[in-house]
Amino acid sequence: MATNVTEQQARQVAEAAREREWKLPSFGKELFLGNFRLDLIHPQPELDPAAVEKGERFLAALRDFLVSEVDPLRIEREARIPDEVVDGLKELGALGMKVPAEYGGLGLSQVYYNRALVLADTWHSAISTLLSAHQSIGVSQPLLAFGTEEQKRRWLPLVARDHISAFLLTEPDVGSDPARLAATAVPTDDGYVLNGRKLWATNGAIADVVVVMAQVPKSEGHRGGISAFVLPYDTEGVTVENRNAFMGLRGIENSATLLRDVFVPAENLIGREGDGLKIALTTLNTGRLALPAICVGVAKWATKICREWGNERVQWGQPVGRHDAVAQKIGFIAATAFGLEAMLDVSSRLADAKRSDIRIEAAIAKLYASEMGWKVVDELMQVRGGRGYETAESLKARGEKPVPVEQAMRDMRINRIFEGSTEIMHLLIAREAVDQHLEVAGDILEGDVELARKARAALKAGRFYAKWLPQLAVGEGQRPGSFDDFGELATHLRFVERNSRKLARSTFYAMGRWQAKLEKRQAFLGRIVDIGAELYAIAAACVYARTLGTAEARELADVFARQARARVKTLFYNVFANEDDANHGLARRVLDGAHTWLEEGIADPSGEGPMMASAEPAEAARSYMDVPDAR
Ligand SMILES: Cc1cc2nc3c(=O)[nH]c(=O)nc-3n(C[C@H](O)[C@H](O)[C@H](O)COP(=O)(O)OP(=O)(O)OC[C@H]3O[C@@H](n4cnc5c(N)ncnc54)[C@H](O)[C@@H]3O)c2cc1C
């Protein structure tokens, strides 16, 4: 398949994969339109008592198992999860947490699935990575959403019990841009023949069954396009070429996988030909909540370590936690842990209640938690000083408590990159945020649209904006006493309401100013999305504190909201006063080689070789068996 893809084609592919309709109300969509619909997230849906009972029972069993059977230092040392741990997880039913009971799984709610990930991740990230890749993007979710009853009956009991699954989309030449997908699935009489090379598949080094994305060429009777298949991993022609190793997530079973003339029967196609990306994106609508859960776990753990260390370590006459500079960091870490948990809880309960479209909220949760989680571990390392930088193994060898802060930092970093990098999440959320505008004014904004269509669009847009714009001028946030039932937190909700309208006004102004070129203003769009994320976080914190109903929760929500409001103010300031053009210009000159003089005096240890491996199987590709610690 050709991988010469223009920017426009790449956009078309992404656009085609989007869910176009909004069948259910969306808090996030309304927020970006300047309409603060608190009623969509408050009061929070009640947790079903049966689901709570089942969830708590599972959490207790998982905790017991982790604490008594799993040595996190060993996983870190050996860079693999011992077989008996994987077997133990299977026995607990942990592979089937999200699979409904009728298909042999535990049928946990989203809330409890996330809590299980929080717990597992804090013990060792390799475990939560295995579980979340298996369940959030592996075989079960796409099948639950798009599979036939027959497919569900065949595969779900297996993946719920003991078949480890993985998701194979990425290729050497396909990262953020799926339009470049080169793996092919050529139709035969009774199925497809797959060829290609897949990169970085989590669980791909030990998987039993995987979801693989490949291009079906268009031909008679085949509409073609990127399609998703369930592939038993022991099928002839599947080779794990490498077990990849990373900065963090030691113990991850991540593969480079070669597919050479691999036959997959027609009944293993998920959905229809050409639906592959839509399936992947829809799966991620709630699947994306796994990563924020992992970040929440780390932030809560960071709070605990700060408390213990901040009290015990005395320097310059008092515990380090009481020196103002360190106290500021602890305040940030604790408040952020609460804010992230609030956002996760609000989003997850919405997912369980199935009464809202949560694609924006889940995407924001992924973006925001991974960015804030990174800041949290960075500050935690600073609070721990030199011990933060020392490995847990080394601390233990010296007779100190093996607190794995440097590991937490290494493990946390990837969250800003995978399952949608921050840059891609900014674009994805921005696209959803301006969807209503594109709906009514898309043709006006597009540069290359004929005049008659523009005129028709102007008429339609005129009707929408005549009603919408005046609504942005006034609102509840200006009325003293509004949201009063939230007590001292009401002021933060008023802030959210006012700033949601300001956000919508800024977006509208920018659309007028840049029109079709708006999509190129990525730094601008990033700030708009980040403001929306902070506003959602503030609202979630207030709502969650109200649900918990304690003075402690209110204090955390209040301080978190204050910190988030300060960030919102800076972001707004930078929306139209920034150095974006200067930065972009400099980047272009750097790329064009104008500043190679600056690189003098260094020695680059990167060595030789292509920056990207060929999508074709390389002659020198090592076989799976040659890799010492691959299984
Ligand atoms: C540990 C690990 C586990 C993974 N697990 C899986 C898995 O299980 N299955 C799977 O299929 N894949 C997996 N991946 C792949 C992962 O999803 C990709 O790394 C991710 O999609 C980003 O792609 P890339 O690394 O090729 O970055 P690139 O797409 O090459 O991007 C490089 C940089 O450019 C930015 N960028 C790219 N396009 C744009 C744009 N249009 N506008 C602005 N900025 C842009 C990116 O944000 C990034 O900063 C994994 C990766 C890792 C490292």
Explain briefly what this protein structure is:
This protein is of the alpha+beta class and 631 residues long. It folds into four domains: 49-161, Orthogonal Bundle (Butyryl-Coa Dehydrogenase, subunit A, domain 1), CATH 1.10.540; 165-280, Butyryl-CoA Dehydrogenase, subunit A, domain 2 (Beta Barrel), CATH 2.40.110; 284-429, Butyryl-CoA Dehydrogenase, subunit A, domain 3, CATH 1.20.140.10; 435-583, no CATH class. The protein has helices spanning 7-17, 27-32, 49-69, 72-78, 83-92, 110-123, 125-137, 140-146, 149-161, 276-287, 290-312, 324-353, 359-384, 386-389, 392-397, 405-413, 422-433, 435-445, 451-471, 490-514, 522-548, 551-576, 580-591, and strands spanning 165-168, 184-187, 191-202, 209-216, 225-232, 238-244, 254-265, 269-270, 314-315, 318-319.
Q: In total, how many beta strands?
A: 10
* Whole-number mean pLDDT: 92
Instruction: State the shape.
Output: globular
Whole-number total of structural domains: 4
- What proportion strand? 5-15%
Could you list the spans in which at least 5 consecutive residues all have pLDDT below 50? 618-631
Largest sheet report: 4 strands, mixed
Structural classification: alpha+beta
Question: Radius of gyration over alpha carbons?
Answer: 25 Å
Structural write-up:
The protein has 631 residues and is an alpha+beta fold. The protein folds into four domains: 49-161, Acyl-CoA dehydrogenase/oxidase, N-terminal domain (Butyryl-Coa Dehydrogenase, subunit A, domain 1, Orthogonal Bundle); 165-280, Butyryl-CoA Dehydrogenase, subunit A, domain 2 (Beta Barrel); 284-429, Butyryl-CoA Dehydrogenase, subunit A, domain 3 (Up-down Bundle); 435-583, no CATH class. It has helices spanning 7-17, 27-32, 49-69, 72-78, 83-92, 110-123, 125-137, 140-146, 149-161, 276-287, 290-312, 324-353, 359-384, 386-389, 392-397, 405-413, 422-433, 435-445, 451-471, 490-514, 522-548, 551-576, 580-591, and strands at 165-168, 184-187, 191-202, 209-216, 225-232, 238-244, 254-265, 269-270, 314-315, 318-319. A four-stranded mixed sheet has the order 1-4-5-8. A four-stranded antiparallel sheet has the order 2-3-7-6, covered by helices on one side. Strands 9-10 form a two-stranded antiparallel sheet. Strand 4 (209-216) and strand 5 (225-232) form a beta hairpin. It is globular. Flavin-adenine dinucleotide (FAD) binds at residues 133, 166-170, 175-176, 200-202, 246, 249, 254, 414, 417-418, 421, 423-424, 522.
